[in-house]
Amino acid sequence: MLDLQDILSIIGALFDAIASGLVALYYGFAAFPSGLAFVVGVIGALAFGLVTPISFQAETLVLVGGLGKNIKERLSIVILAGIMMGILGAFGFLGAVLDFIGEDILSGMLAGVGIILARAGLTLMKEHYPSGIVSMIVALSVFFFHGDLAYMIAASILAGTAVYVFMTKGRTNAGLQDLDPVLTARKLNFTKPIFNNWGVWRAALAVCTLQIGANISYGTITGQIANHPVDIDKLTVVSALADFVSALFGGAPMESIIAVTATGTHPVTAGIIFMAIMAVILLSGLLPKLARWIPISSTSGYLFVLGAVLVVPDNMAAAVGGNPLVGSITAVVTAISDPFIGMLAGIIVRMITG
C-alpha cells in the first residue's frame, strides 16, 4: 500500500520526466514511441525488482541532440548505443570497463557533461528571454534555499510558463508551439539506422561512454537513497532495450536517473507506478498538448542547475582528487567535444604521466 511519501515521490519524478520530455520534443524525438520505452521499463523493473527507474535523462538528450545533425542521425546514434550497451550489460562488462577507465576519468567525463548541460540551459533561454531568465532565477533561488530537485523543477517551469503566457498570450512561438505532426502522431514510424557514417558511430561511442558512467553512478546513488541493492548490469540491459525499442520508431533515449521515487517508503513500487503513468502520458498524446503551452525556455533554469550546480562540482572534485591533470583534461575535452573523445584524452594523459 502506497503512503503519502510514495505519492509525493511519484509526483516529483513526474515533474522531472515531463521537463526532460519537453527537451526531447525540442530535439525532434517523438512522444508516442517514447511511451513504449517506459513500458519496457515497467516490465524490466517488475522482472528484476529494479529500484532505479528509467526516464528521459537530460544529459543523454542534450548530448545526442548536439552530436546528431538531424533526427535520423540522432535516432541512429541511440539505436547503435542501445545495441552496444545491451551487449555490455548482458555479459557483465560494465565493471571491467570502469576498472579500465578509472574513477578520475569517469568523474572528469561526467563533469564535462555537466558543463554541456549548463550550456544547453543558457542556449534554450534564448528561445524566449523573459521566461528563460525568470526560469533561471527561480531555479537557482528555490534550489539554494530549499535544496529539493523536484520543487526546483516545478517552480522554475511554472514561473517561466506564467511569464510566457502573460507576455505573449499564447501567440508567440517559443520553441514547442508548432510541433511537427510526426512528433505528436499516435503511431509508430520505423527508422532504418545509419550504419555507414563514422560520425554516427563516434557519437554512439560517446553516448555509450556517458551511459556507462551514468548507469554506474546514478544507479548506485539511487540504490543508496532507497537502501536497496542495485544490479547495474540488469539496469543497463533494461535501459538499452528501452533505447532500442523507442528510437527504432522515432522515440527518445531512456536512461537511468537519480530518481525521486527512491525517497519513497516503497521505492520499487513507486518507480514502477511512475513509469506506468509516464507511459500513459506519452501514449495518450498528453505531453505534446502540454508542450503547446509550456515554452522550451522554461526548462533553461532546470538544465542549468542540474549541470552547473548538481553534476559539475562533485564530479570535478572527484576527478581532480586522484590525478588532477588526468581528471581536469578529461573534463575540459569532454565539454568541448564529447565524452568518448574526453575519455581518450584522459587515457592518453594517464599513459604519458604514468
Measured by DSSP, the beta-strand proportion falls in under 5%
Major sheet = 2 strands, antiparallel
Q: Helix count?
A: 16
Order of SSEs, N→C?
HHEHHHHHHHHHEHHHHH
**Model regions low in confidence, pLDDT < 50 over at least 5 residues:** none
Going across the biggest sheet, name each strand in turn.
Answer: 1-2
Q: What does this protein structure show overall?
A:
The protein is globular and about 60 Å long. It has a two-stranded antiparallel sheet with strand order 1-2. It has helices spanning 4-26, 31-48, 58-67, 71-90, 94-101, 103-125, 129-146, 149-168, 181-184, 198-226, 232-247, 267-283, 286-291, 300-322, 324-336, 339-353, and strands at residues 54-55, 255-256. Helix 1 crosses helix 8, helix 1 (4-26) crosses helix 12 and helix 6 (103-125) packs across helix 10 (198-226). The chain is built from 16 helices and 2 strands. The model has no long low-confidence stretch (mean pLDDT 90). It has 354 residues and is an all-alpha fold.
